[in-house]
Amino acid sequence: MIVSRLVAVVATLLSGMPEAAATEPWRMRDSPFTLGEAFPETPATCESVKLWAGKAPTIDDRVSFAIVGELVAVEWDGTLAYLIMCPETDIQVMCVTYSKEGRNVGDSVTFAGGYNRVGERGIVLDPCLAAPAD
User: Which residue among 36, 63, 93, 97 is buried most deeply as judged by most CB within 10 Å?
Assistant: First the structure.
Protein backbone atom coordinates (compact mmCIF):
# COMPACT_ATOMS: atom_id res chain seq x y z
CA MET A 1 0.00 0.00 0.00
CA ILE A 2 2.74 2.48 0.94
CA VAL A 3 4.77 1.46 -2.12
CA SER A 4 1.85 2.03 -4.50
CA ARG A 5 1.20 5.43 -2.90
CA LEU A 6 4.88 6.33 -3.26
CA VAL A 7 4.85 5.27 -6.91
CA ALA A 8 1.80 7.47 -7.53
CA VAL A 9 3.49 10.46 -5.87
CA VAL A 10 6.68 9.97 -7.89
CA ALA A 11 4.72 9.61 -11.14
CA THR A 12 2.83 12.80 -10.36
CA LEU A 13 6.03 14.70 -9.56
CA LEU A 14 7.66 13.48 -12.75
CA SER A 15 4.65 14.69 -14.75
CA GLY A 16 5.34 18.21 -13.50
CA MET A 17 2.00 18.55 -11.71
CA PRO A 18 1.74 18.88 -7.92
CA GLU A 19 0.07 15.87 -6.32
CA ALA A 20 -2.83 17.90 -4.96
CA ALA A 21 -3.53 19.42 -8.38
CA ALA A 22 -3.64 15.99 -10.01
CA THR A 23 -6.64 15.05 -7.88
CA GLU A 24 -8.55 18.35 -8.03
CA PRO A 25 -12.05 17.65 -9.41
CA TRP A 26 -11.88 20.44 -12.00
CA ARG A 27 -8.85 18.72 -13.59
CA MET A 28 -10.67 15.40 -14.10
CA ARG A 29 -11.33 14.10 -17.62
CA ASP A 30 -15.08 14.82 -17.47
CA SER A 31 -14.60 18.39 -16.18
CA PRO A 32 -16.04 21.32 -18.15
CA PHE A 33 -13.00 23.41 -17.07
CA THR A 34 -9.59 23.71 -18.65
CA LEU A 35 -6.66 26.06 -18.27
CA GLY A 36 -6.01 28.67 -20.93
CA GLU A 37 -8.12 29.22 -24.00
CA ALA A 38 -8.58 25.58 -24.98
CA PHE A 39 -12.07 24.18 -25.50
CA PRO A 40 -12.96 21.80 -22.64
CA GLU A 41 -13.66 18.29 -23.94
CA THR A 42 -16.77 17.65 -21.84
CA PRO A 43 -19.27 20.49 -21.43
CA ALA A 44 -21.46 20.91 -18.36
CA THR A 45 -25.25 21.02 -18.64
CA CYS A 46 -27.83 23.13 -16.84
CA GLU A 47 -28.40 20.11 -14.61
CA SER A 48 -24.71 19.73 -13.69
CA VAL A 49 -23.57 23.37 -13.63
CA LYS A 50 -24.32 23.79 -9.91
CA LEU A 51 -22.11 20.80 -9.07
CA TRP A 52 -19.29 22.04 -11.29
CA ALA A 53 -19.51 25.66 -10.12
CA GLY A 54 -18.73 24.37 -6.63
CA LYS A 55 -15.60 22.69 -8.00
CA ALA A 56 -14.33 25.65 -10.02
CA PRO A 57 -10.62 26.37 -9.80
CA THR A 58 -9.60 29.24 -7.57
CA ILE A 59 -6.53 30.39 -9.45
CA ASP A 60 -5.46 33.62 -11.13
CA ASP A 61 -4.77 32.00 -14.52
CA ARG A 62 -7.25 32.03 -17.41
CA VAL A 63 -9.80 29.22 -16.97
CA SER A 64 -12.15 28.19 -19.75
CA PHE A 65 -15.55 26.59 -19.17
CA ALA A 66 -17.98 24.89 -21.55
CA ILE A 67 -21.70 24.20 -21.23
CA VAL A 68 -24.41 22.89 -23.53
CA GLY A 69 -28.11 23.69 -23.25
CA GLU A 70 -31.04 25.73 -24.53
CA LEU A 71 -31.05 29.49 -24.71
CA VAL A 72 -33.47 31.19 -22.30
CA ALA A 73 -32.63 34.77 -23.35
CA VAL A 74 -30.96 36.46 -26.31
CA GLU A 75 -30.10 40.18 -26.14
CA TRP A 76 -28.23 42.53 -28.47
CA ASP A 77 -27.04 46.04 -27.52
CA GLY A 78 -25.78 47.01 -30.97
CA THR A 79 -22.21 45.99 -30.14
CA LEU A 80 -22.36 42.81 -28.08
CA ALA A 81 -24.69 39.84 -27.86
CA TYR A 82 -25.67 38.37 -24.50
CA LEU A 83 -26.79 34.76 -24.77
CA ILE A 84 -28.14 33.15 -21.60
CA MET A 85 -28.89 29.53 -20.77
CA CYS A 86 -30.36 27.71 -17.77
CA PRO A 87 -33.48 28.72 -15.78
CA GLU A 88 -33.44 31.78 -13.51
CA THR A 89 -34.10 29.52 -10.53
CA ASP A 90 -30.70 27.86 -11.01
CA ILE A 91 -27.24 29.10 -11.91
CA GLN A 92 -27.50 30.94 -15.22
CA VAL A 93 -24.65 31.12 -17.71
CA MET A 94 -24.18 34.18 -19.92
CA CYS A 95 -22.06 34.13 -23.05
CA VAL A 96 -20.77 37.57 -24.07
CA THR A 97 -20.02 37.50 -27.79
CA TYR A 98 -20.10 39.73 -30.86
CA SER A 99 -23.16 38.40 -32.69
CA LYS A 100 -26.45 36.63 -32.07
CA GLU A 101 -25.86 34.80 -35.37
CA GLY A 102 -29.59 34.30 -35.77
CA ARG A 103 -29.95 32.46 -32.47
CA ASN A 104 -33.27 32.52 -30.65
CA VAL A 105 -34.69 31.46 -27.30
CA GLY A 106 -35.04 27.66 -27.30
CA ASP A 107 -32.06 26.99 -29.60
CA SER A 108 -29.61 24.35 -28.37
CA VAL A 109 -26.08 25.74 -28.18
CA THR A 110 -22.66 25.10 -26.73
CA PHE A 111 -20.85 27.93 -24.97
CA ALA A 112 -17.11 27.97 -24.28
CA GLY A 113 -15.18 30.87 -22.85
CA GLY A 114 -13.36 32.56 -20.02
CA TYR A 115 -14.96 31.58 -16.71
CA ASN A 116 -16.06 34.33 -14.32
CA ARG A 117 -18.35 33.69 -11.34
CA VAL A 118 -20.85 36.48 -10.63
CA GLY A 119 -22.64 36.07 -7.33
CA GLU A 120 -24.25 32.83 -6.22
CA ARG A 121 -26.37 32.28 -9.33
CA GLY A 122 -24.35 33.66 -12.20
CA ILE A 123 -21.51 32.66 -14.49
CA VAL A 124 -20.28 34.94 -17.25
CA LEU A 125 -18.15 33.56 -20.07
CA ASP A 126 -16.21 36.45 -21.58
CA PRO A 127 -14.88 36.24 -24.17
CA CYS A 128 -17.14 33.46 -25.32
CA LEU A 129 -17.85 31.40 -28.42
CA ALA A 130 -21.33 30.02 -29.07
CA ALA A 131 -21.95 27.20 -31.52
CA PRO A 132 -24.93 25.01 -32.39
CA ALA A 133 -25.07 21.98 -30.08
CA ASP A 134 -24.16 18.69 -31.74
Answer: 93
β-pairing, 81-85 vs 63-76, is antiparallel
Report yes or no: 110 and 43 within 8 Å, Cβ to Cβ.
yes
Residue by residue, pLDDT tens for the chain (134 residues) are 443 443 343 333 334 444 444 467 666 677 999 988 888 889 999 999 999 988 888 888 899 999 999 999 999 999 999 999 999 999 999 999 999 999 999 999 999 999 999 999 999 999 999 999 97
Neighbour count for residue 116 (Cβ, 10 Å)? 14
Q: How far is CA 129 from the centre of its chain?
A: 12
CATH fold of 31-132: OB fold (Dihydrolipoamide Acetyltransferase, E2P) (2.40.50)
Where are the chain's structural domains? 1-26, 31-132
